[in-house]
Amino acid sequence: MTMITRRGFIKGAAALAPLAHLPATARARQATPPKERFDIVVAGAGHNSLIAAAYLAKAGYRSVVLEDQPRIGGGVGTREVTLPGFKHDLASSVHGGIQSNPAMKELELAKYGLSYIVPDPVMHISFPDSSYITVWRDFERTAREFDRINPKDGAAFRRIAAELEEVQPLLGNEEKLRQHPQGNVWRRRLKMSAYDMACHVFEDSRCRAFALAAGHLGGEPPSEPGSYRSALSVVSSGRNGRPIAVGGSDALAQALARFITAHGGTVLTNKRVTRLIIENKRSVGVECADGSSYLAGKAVLSTLHVKHLVDMAPRELWPDDFVQNVAMWRPEVAMFVAHYAVKEPPKYPVAGGTLSPCESVTLVNPARLLRLEFDDANGQINVEDPPLQIVCPTVADPSRAPAGMHTLKINGFQPYAIQQGPQQWEQLKNQVADAYLNTLRRLAPNLTDDKILGRYIVSPVDLERLNRHFWHGSAHAGYDGPGQSGDMRPVPGWSDYRMPIAGLYQTGACTRPGGSVNGTPGRNAAAAMLKDFGTSIEEVVSRNV
After folding, report:
1. Inter-axis angle of helices 205-215 and 233-240, to 10 degrees?
2. What is the largest CA-CA distance in the chain?
3. Residue 461 near residue 501 (C-beta atoms within 8 A)
4. Closest C-alpha to 249, from 525, 486, 475, 40
5. Could you report the per-residue pLDDT of 395-439, keeping only the tens digit for each?
6. Containing H/E element for 66?
7. Residue 305: is it exposed, middle or buried by C-beta count within 10 angstroms (0-12/13-18/19+)?
8. Cα–Cα distance between 8 and 173 in angstroms, integer?
């Protein structure tokens, strides 16, 4: 990975880091004098704001994207954090949701260097008793995995998959759902928590555990009423796969940056937005920490977390209910991430040898996942049988590491506000990382010390420090329960993506439908803006230029 270097602005302007891989013409456009006027100013370069900026650039609006960090991408960031040549995804690795987003074709991102691999096997879990379940792209092969654990659960897996496929088109239509023979059953299921759904569908605790472990990757609490879908994601994972971007998660951000610059836009890094510039109660630009300012003739688009955004304009411009709702916004159970450069991937013992999947999970029993919320509320670090997500993308994409080598990411969940105080994470994080690695080693014993070449440990506090949008270590911008999901993001009572201050729009994980790599908030925000500008996203994408 090419490291980004700093170059100075003339006359003492603060340093910024251009995207080193962009063409010289694009880099030249980045040397923009402070206070230059643009049509659109975008605060933050996560994948959602980049998608919105790409549509706006295609529409002919002169846009600038300002990113706090030395590299763009936000939650789809990739960096060499252990050793040179080992490209690690700092947050997201899997880009499943965005595959159905029209932006993929409308922006022709494949032409800008974006491509995907869909690994097979899709996901794996091993248990302490040496049993295991693997999800494959072949649905019946996966069903036979459940058969091996419990024939009743194999039959249940097939049955719930068939039912879900049949009622899926009806789930948003109460009247039609009532008319379906299984409609009343599904109306009840829609209210179930993920934990209850897993127990309802499966009999064996290992099958229940796998369903919950596979579904918790999105961060939704398994005890929440209405979170039933999380327990059924194991059904769709095999059919749809869990795609990874070739070269690293930030390949998505880099392709979008190439699109933006090719259409006359500008992307600047090391530009932390600290204040909204307000004139006549309208947002007309932003000011950065280095003193530079960027003015917007049409609008400002933010992907900053609303917890920070609310402090960037005078209090009297925000309605009381807006401020109160932001105050009620809750973080999710924070992520704890350990990155390793390794000589070989995890090798799980299976019948006939070993298996090295791209993605695996651990969960000893369903109830262990419920303990996360208690520990979080209590500020208690708990490393006993921790639920984990293990990602080794180099199994499918060897371009991310030197020949024969691998990257390994172990994701867990720990409180941000620990009893010892968040500042103590620096002294405690290596102990937690060791416990996570030892948990994995009990299931994949090949990962001995001599296989570990380097490591980079990220506590919940570190995660927020790396990206301010990961507020209190929340990789999905916040708790995704009923009070903060769907149309309750970011704040109820305001038009989608249009903020209370005139000229200010919002996108990203704080907006509907929420976090993860799906790009929907980005495309939706662009559609709202283009409509307000007198055109439509359909008209823009129909243009040949």
Report:
1. 70
2. 74
3. no
4. 475
5. 999 999 999 999 999 999 999 999 999 999 999 999 999 999 999
6. strand 63-66
7. buried
8. 57
Please identify which residue in the block is written with the tokens 């994409």. 397
**Do you find a cis peptide bond into 128, omega within 30 degrees of 0?**
no
Provide the H-helix boundaries in 168-204: 174-179, 183-189, 194-201
Which residues have C-beta within 8 Å of that of residue 146, sequence separation ≥ 6? Answer: 133, 153, 154, 156, 157, 202, 207
Distance CA 507, CA 304 (A): 8
Using DSSP, state whether 45 is helix, strand or coil. coil
The length of the chain is 545
Rounded Cα gap, residues 429 and 272, in angstroms: 27
Q: Which two tokens stand for residue 476?
A: 């999905």
Q: How far apart are the first and last CA of the chain?
A: 32
Q: How many whole angstroms separate alpha carbon 59 and alpha carbon 510?
A: 25
CB atoms within 10 A of CB 300: 26
The mean-pLDDT minimum among 257-266, 460-469, 524-533 falls in 460-469
Apex 4 CA angle, 31 and 271, nearest 5? 50
Give the containing element (helix H, strand E) for 105.
helix 103-106
